[in-house]
Amino acid sequence: MEGNNSLAADLSGTDLSNLFPLIDRENVHGLNLVTPEQAKAVIKPWSEREDTTVYADSGVDDQMIIHVPFAQNVRVKSIILKLGRGESTPRHLRVYANYPNIVDFSDAENITPHLNISLLEGETAVVEYPLKVAAFSSVHSLSLYFRESVGGELSRVYYLGFKGDVRTLRKEGTNKLEVAAADAADAPLVDRLAQKTGGQQTTAR
């Protein structure tokens, strides 16, 4: 148990952590996806952020919602995205914090989002979008509503990640902290500095 407490302290002590280890990936789900499992597939380790073989495509139109729960409360400081290219690039993203009851697009339209983001067009690399920290200071889930693609028919997402830190340690989430990070950049920054790796950072460029 001491190791868990130490890891929790390390996570809460840095504001540059990749939140991948704290995502409740089994309960990630999406609306209007060609294949429902694609929602989980785009939640990848940092080492796979540039991968384009696995992605999520919208279904009947260019709108999609991806709901991401966390194993415990976190402060989310930025969203990191790699989006489809050309006509499959969504141009707008609405972000809702702590609304696990969004079950359809009418809900998303009727609820005021915590943040509206105009997404970069023509960018093929991973891009980091900073968030208003006050609005995302204690988050147990995020719902991301992608819409209005360049071509107007299909939206595509290759990678979805988050940066932030732990806010409150919940006992039921302790086991999640025991899962080893898939690569050094998914581990807390404190651990990485202690190991003097220094070669890979979670900052998207």
Note the main attributes of this structure.
disordered C terminus; 9 strands; disordered N terminus; single chain; 9-stranded antiparallel β-sheet
Explain how this protein is built.
The protein is of the alpha+beta class. It is built from 4 helices and 9 strands; from the N terminus they run αββαβββαββββα. The longest helix has 11 residues. The protein is globular.
Number of helices: 4
Shape: globular
Helix content class: 10-25%
- Global structural class: alpha+beta
- The radius of gyration is 16 Å
Characterize the biggest β-sheet.
9 strands, antiparallel
Terminal CA distance: 37 Å
Mean pLDDT, all residues: 80
- Low-confidence stretches are 1-15, 171-205
Question: Which H/E pattern describes the elements?
Answer: HEEHEEEHEEEEH
- Oligomeric form: single chain
Tell how many strands the DSSP assignment holds: 9
Q: Estimate the strand proportion.
A: 25-35%
What's the helix and strand layout?
Elements lengths: L1 H11 L4 E2 L10 E3 L6 H4 L14 E2 L6 E20 L6 E8 L7 H6 L4 E4 L8 E4 L8 E11 L6 E11 L22 H6 L11
Antiparallel strand pairs: 1-9, 2-4, 3-9, 4-7, 4-8, 4-9, 5-6, 5-8
Summarize the structure.
The chain has 205 residues and is an alpha+beta fold. It contains four helices and nine strands, in the order αββαβββαββββα. The model is unreliable at 1-15 and 171-205 (pLDDT under 50).
